Amino acid sequence: MSRRRIVLVVLLVGLVVVAAVTATFGARHHTVPTPPSLEAERQMRAAIISYRVLQEPMRPAKFYGKQLTPIRCVSLMKGSDTQLRAVADGEAWEQARSGWDTLAGLIREEQDLSRDFGVGTIPVSWKGEIGYWDLQRGGGDTYVVRAAVVETRTSGRWDAATASLTHLTSVTYDEASAYEFTLRRIDGVWKVIDVHGWMDYTRGVGIHTGGA
User: Fold this and answer.
1) Contact in structure between 152 and 193 (CB atoms under 8 Å)
2) CATH number of the domain that residue 145 is part of
């Protein structure tokens, strides 16, 4: 075998070794080195559900049947931000915090419900459950997961005479947007600290591209 051919063989063997090492490192890099405990995962799931649900339009019970004056609007936004602080921090909190766009969304939601279910119908509660969950990477106090929260909205009308809600109707949605969430345990509490859009999710279908 000529010297040139020997050099080529050595180079090819070297490239194969490098490729194998790189593939092995890449596979290890994308695995979860330390899966979270069942309790930690339960808390992470709860944080993600709360994070998504708290962004849905809904007025506090103390404002049922009342006009949303500027003072009440500010109170609504502050209350919403306080609730978000319990489950979010960093960029995730900044993205989700309430603003005038949130109030505009609430007004549109109430107008749509009044048109579809009768004048005075408003959203009175939102609930969520994990429809899709895939732990991506992480360990210790920080994890990255991909998840989709399917939601249920309950609407009703406020009866001022009896000070109670009537005509309660619940609708569960089968479609949702799936996101990549970064969660971190801060002072013993799991919080969402970063969120990026990813795919769409439909119950019974799973993850897919296209509008949810």
Assistant:
1) no
2) 3.10.450.540
8 within some domain: no
Q: Is residue 62 part of a domain?
A: yes
Give domain status of residue 59, yes or no. Answer: yes
Residues 146 and 156: their CA atoms lie apart, in Å, by 33
pLDDT digits (tens, 9 = 90+) for 63-109: 999 999 999 999 999 999 999 999 999 999 999 998 888 889 999 99
Domain of 142?
36-208
Q: CA distances (Å), 150 to each of 50, 63, 75, in order?
A: 12, 27, 28
pLDDT in tens, 159-196: 999 999 999 999 999 999 999 999 999 999 999 999 99
- The answer to whether the pTM exceeds 0.85 is no
> Which helix (DSSP H) or strand (DSSP E) does residue 76 occupy?
helix 70-85
